[in-house]
Each structure stands twice: as C-alpha cells, then as structure tokens.
Design brief:
This protein has 13 helices and 18 strands. It is an alpha+beta fold. The longest helix has about 35 residues.
Length: about 475
C-alpha cells in the first residue's frame, strides 16, 4: 500500500513538472522577447492564483502561484489581459509607445519557443524510440462484432483495410497523422454511410458501412462514430491464475496462443467468442513458447466468484509493443496535420466530433498520468509532449483576441491604421473573449473530470486477479 501511494505521488509529480514545463517555456519566449525589445514587464508568474512566493528583481516581480497549472507574463504595453492576469500596476497612458513590429515579435516568441521545445523533444524521441503497438502499424481487422455495422456490410476478420471515406489508411490508431488512421476517419466522417476498401486474400473489395454512435449512459462526452471492429493483435498471456484450467494445463506467462479449435487467433476477442460457443466443453489451443509450438486441451470452468461465464484463468498482455523511431519531421508534421484536422472536424456542422471532445488542462494531465503509468510511459510522455507543444504553438497563433494570434492581428491593424486601436474598445473585446475562453475551459473541464479514472486500471486488474479464483481440479479428473 505504501509503495502504491509513493508511486502515485511520484507519477503526479512527473505530470505536474512536465505539463508546467511546456507552459513556462512558452511564457519564457514572451518574457525574453519583451526584454529584448524594451517592453515593460511587470510580472513573470509560474502558476496562477494567490502567490505563495514573490520577489522583485530589476523591476520585474517574479512569483510562484498557488494553483499548479501554467503561468503568464504581464506586459501592459500589449493588449489588456487583466481578466486573466489581474490588474496591472502601470498606467498604460504613461507608458512609452512601442512599434507594431515589437508587439508582433513579442507575441510570436511564445509559439516559436513552444515549437522549438517540440523539436527538442522530437530529437530525443528519435533517439530513444516511441512505443508502438500493433494498431500503430497495421490495418488488419482482428475482430468484427457480430451483427455490428461492419459485419452487416460484409467486412471480416483478417481483412486488411486500404481506405476509409476515400482516405488511404496505414493504421488503426489515431496517433500521428490523423487522416492515415482508421479510427479517425470513421469518427470524422460526415455522411451516413462510409465507403471502406479492403484487401482480402489479394482481392480488393469495397463496402458501404453505416456507422453507429452508441448512446452513453449518464453524463459524459458523446460517443464517436464506430463500425464495431478491432485491430488484430497477438494473444499473449500476462498472468496465469493459480489452480485455473490454464495453470493445470501448464500454460505460462508470455506464452503466445496462435490458434483455438484450429482457427487462427487474430485477437483475444476471437477466443472469447469460441469459449462462449463451447461453454464447458474442452478447447484445443495451439501455443508458442519461445521457439517451440505445441497443442494443449483445456476445459473451461466457472470461477468461484459466482460469475456464470466459463473461464480459462488467463489475463492477457495488452501492453506488448515494439519501439519505433520516427524522425523529428515525421513527428512535427504529423502533429501539425492532426491539429488542422481537429479544427476542421470541430468546425464542421456535419462532423461527429465537437468541442466537448477536446480536452483542457485536467484532461491533458490525466492523459500524462496514464502515459507515465504504462510500460515505457516516459517515452510515450516525451512523444505526446511533441504533439502538445505543436498544438500549443498553432492554437495560440489563431487570430483570436487574448491569444498570441490576436495580439499579432491587433499589431498588424495598428500598423496599417498608423495608430493604436481604441483602448476602451480593446478592453471590451479582450474581456469578452477572455470570458468566452474561460467558459470554454470550464466546459471541457467538466467532461475531463467526468472522464477521470477514479479507479485506476492497474488496481482493477489486480483486484480482478484476486477475485477470479478457481478450486483445484481433483487429481482423478485432471487430463493426462
């Protein structure tokens, strides 16, 4: 228990440090550019809220806030930001005027630093590698839900998907370039029927599939469109439960189940379906252990927890991955592609992806936690930091007041008009946009909180291993 608590606290510390590093580097860009161009800098704050520490050095107040999320630089010669950063001490009317080009440089420095940090992280990922599952590198269908949309259209397990909705695909996973993902193109589709092309034993077949978006019980984000298929993956054993049929048959952790009842297994769901059909009848498995392959027959039994589903007493290894080494260009360009695809999907009236599917700081930190919790989590966290920094850079360049792109737009307007925008009008627009952004953040945070895994998956797996118990089979009943 003590170890679990310490592990939880350590992962939380990793999440807070890495997440805040991304924001602080962005704000550092603004700070250094403002000092370089001679702008007045009142505050450089790490974290928000009431300061728990502050010190004034060289006319700048450096402070550490009480809310461990992000930070900001107070530069009163830019557009007013009091709604987010609090009141400024300087009288803007008494500050020396600055050129529009200086405002543009200062505003653009934050995104530039974010992009630079993304490149730095991508170089590290290029060297140490990024964990890649089978879904990251294959389009082979491993399981088709009976009577689901794909099954009704004629798609079968073993089919290799070539294109979805007119877009060539290279993997199931939505990570990387969005338009190359099966999952993304299904969720992103804007028509009631999705054209899907597959390769089946060397033949190219086309299907028209009508996706579904299953209703979600209770509160939470609306489910995205699905066609109810799963990627092919190996059926490798992680844990064999004591006294279970699998244990009595001599199966071990890391054994690979190749076939069940003479049928090649493309996913663990295949075996679950076979067990459901066979009930308590014996099942023959083909197993690979190292370089050896052998057959074994097991008779499923009901566990002692009262569950009425026959089990073999196996828990699967879903974490098996290899290391990929994407180049910095592949990582950064993939992130750019994803953010533009996301913006297009959110702004499209016919897309199933909406604002509620975006995440704020809570959702991002939750994702970081889950990444750190997984095997090779630090590699995944580094890769995700590339994606997040590119997103931070590009989203901040949108021409919306309060964002860096808004400052740049206002500076360009000022340069064209040859006089500053009316300060009262500017304060009104800035405040209105700040309120809208705060409202949006509260909106997505509501869904982020609902999505928090109040019970960690690892804890649930451990409890499942404890609950699923079997009584030893009498010696007279055991198979020879």
């Amino acid at each position: 228990m003590v170890f679990d608590i310490l592990k939880f606290l350590f992962i939380c510390l990793e999440v807070v440090l890495l997440f805040n590093l991304l924001i602080i580097v962005h704000e550092l860009g603004h700070f250094l550019a403002a000092r370089w161009r001679g702008l007045v800098v009142e505050k450089f704050a790490i974290w928000f809220g009431k300061p728990i520490w502050s010190k004034k050095i060289g006319g700048v107040e450096y402070r550490l806030g009480s809310i461990p999320a992000g930070g900001y630089v107070a530069i009163p010669q830019l557009a007013p930001m009091e709604v987010l950063e609090g009141p400024v001490a300087s009288d803007r009317s008494q500050l020396p005027p600055i050129k529009p080009i200086d405002k543009i440089i200062v505003a653009a420095a934050g995104p530039v630093f974010s992009l630079g940090l993304a490149v730095a992280f991508s170089l590290v990922v290029w060297v140490v590698g990024k964990p890649a599952s089978q879904a990251d590198a294959s389009t082979e269908v491993g399981f088709v839900v009976p009577d689901g949309p794909a099954a009704k259209a004629g798609i079968e397990a073993g089919d290799r998907i070539l294109s979805v909705d007119g877009h060539k695909v290279t993997r199931f996973s939505p990570m990387g370039k969005a338009r190359e993902s099966i999952i993304w193109n299904i969720a992103r589709s804007e028509t009631p029927v999705i054209p899907i092309t597959v390769d089946r034993d060397g033949k190219t077949l086309s299907f028209e599939v009508e996706p579904v978006a299953p209703e979600r019980e209770g509160l939470g984000r609306r489910n995205l469109k699905q066609i109810l298929i799963a990627p092919a993956h190996s059926s490798r054993i992680a844990i064999v439960i004591k006294d279970s049929p699998a244990a009595e048959a001599g199966l071990k952790s890391q054994d690979l189940i190749l076939e069940a009842e003479g049928k090649k297994l493309l996913s663990t769901a295949d075996l679950a379906m076979i067990l459901k059909e066979k009930g308590l009848e014996p099942v023959e498995l083909t197993v690979q252990r190292g370089d050896k392959t052998f057959n074994v027959t097991l008779t499923p039994r009901l566990p002692e927890n009262g569950e009425q589903v026959p089990r073999l007493g196996i828990q699967w290894d879903f974490q098996g991955t290899t290391l990929a080494y994407p180049t910095p260009w592949e990582q950064v360009s993939g992130s750019v592609d994803t953010i533009f695809e996301t913006i297009a999907a959110v702004t499209s009236p016919n897309s199933g992806i909406s604002l509620q599917h975006l995440s704020g700081p809570v959702g991002i930190m939750n994702l970081y936690y889950r990444l750190f919790e997984s095997p090779n989590g630090w590699r995944l966290a580094l890769w995700f930091s590339v994606v997040l920094n590119v997103n931070l850079a590009l989203l901040n360049l949108l021409p919306i007041p309060v964002l860096d792109g808004g400052h740049i737009t206002l500076a360009i307007i000022e340069g064209i008009r040859r006089r500053p925008v009316n300060i009262r009008l500017l304060e009104f627009v800035q405040s209105a946009c700040a309120i809208l952004i705060i409202g949006f953040m509260l909106y997505v945070t509501f869904y982020d909180v609902l999505d928090l895994p109040w019970k960690r998956a690892a804890v649930e797996d451990a409890k499942a291993a404890e609950v699923m118990k079997f009584s030893p089979t009498p010696a007279s009943d055991q198979q020879p």
